[in-house]
Amino acid sequence: MDIRGGQPYIAIVIVMEPFGQPRTRLRAVHPVMLVGDVPAAMTIDECEELLETVERTGLTYMMAETSYYHQAMISARKWWKSGAFGEIFYSEAEYHHPGLEVLFTENGKRTWRYGFPPMHYPTHCTSFLVGLTNERLTEVTCVGWGDDSPYLKDNAYKNPFWNETAFFKTDRGHSMRVAVCWKGAMRGTERAQWYGDKMSFFTPDPNGLGPVIVRDQAVEETDSAGFKRSRPAFENYQQPNYYETDMLPEPMRHGSGHDGSHPFLTHEFIDCLVNDRPPAIDIFQALAYTAPGIIAHESALKGGKQLKIPQFDQPFG
């Protein structure tokens, strides 16, 4: 396969499911580019191994994280780059997938999802901050919830939790709450909200609200107890479908699963190969999305103990 003008190369696209560790096969080959599904790793040791492999082989690594290309996330990046948010001091992200247990078995056999720790699948959430501001999640305290389900008594991960909620501190002194939930009276969602000192943005809520923009303004109101407070401007945001614009080549301008992200991921992969450039979600971003969840789960297993998160790069944005 040759699309870069006469230079032969190998491009490998693999799915990194937790079992089998296909990334270790890279020791035997020398690919130019590897596209990995999420998560990038299951342990901190595996994070280190993946980074070492990328550095040793010189391959280009790309994570296929869909949330990075959600339509609302693309809007948020445009506002961040223009300074519209001001300083984002707090953010929240939620990945709710109630009823996940229907995917725990297939043809009578357990799949890798059987009893999977929620915080080992953090990237649909962590990407909403790291992929926006490029800051790093440096500390975490996390609480898990489980019940007497047999799924939680006997699984390969020794995971006792259906749901995990984490509170992170960033390298810029900001905070982020992340909730990954497999069970409960909740509707499925992958969403975020960012609180800035000039503007805040709330992606669509599965219960019917949003997308919404709130802007700071010099207007006062009185609450029900008679106390004065500021009244920010509230507006319903008409979300563009960026996959229908010139952000993509014309043949790829169509919707897809995961909020229209699939054509963007495909285009990013091809464009990186053609133009010999690093992808938006490279090895450093991928580990910055993944490692915080690994440590968050460890915190939950320790009753919410606050833990530091290993860093695999210096932020460059």
Task: Note down, in words, how this protein is organized.
With 317 residues, this protein is an alpha+beta fold. It has a domain at 85-239 and 288-308: Dihydrodipicolinate Reductase, domain 2 (2-Layer Sandwich), CATH 3.30.360. Helices cover 25% and strands 24% of the residues. The chain has 7 helices and 16 strands. It has helices at residues 44-57, 71-82, 123-133, 150-153, 257-260, 262-275, 283-301, and strands spanning 11-13, 33-36, 60-63, 88-96, 105-106, 109-110, 137-145, 163-170, 175-181, 189-196, 199-202, 212-215, 220-222, 228-230, 233-236, 307-308. The strands form 4 sheets. It has a 9-stranded mixed β-sheet with strand order 15-12-11-10-4-9-8-7-16, covered by helices on one side. It has a 3-stranded parallel β-sheet with strand order 1-2-3. Strand 10 (189-196) and strand 11 (199-202) form a beta hairpin. Helix 3 (123-133) crosses helix 7 (283-301). The two termini are 34 Å apart. The model is unreliable at 19-30 (pLDDT under 50).
Provide a compact summary of the structure.
The protein is of the alpha+beta class and 317 residues long. Helix content is 25%, strand content 24%. It has a domain at 85-239 and 288-308: Dihydrodipicolinate Reductase, domain 2 (2-Layer Sandwich), CATH 3.30.360.
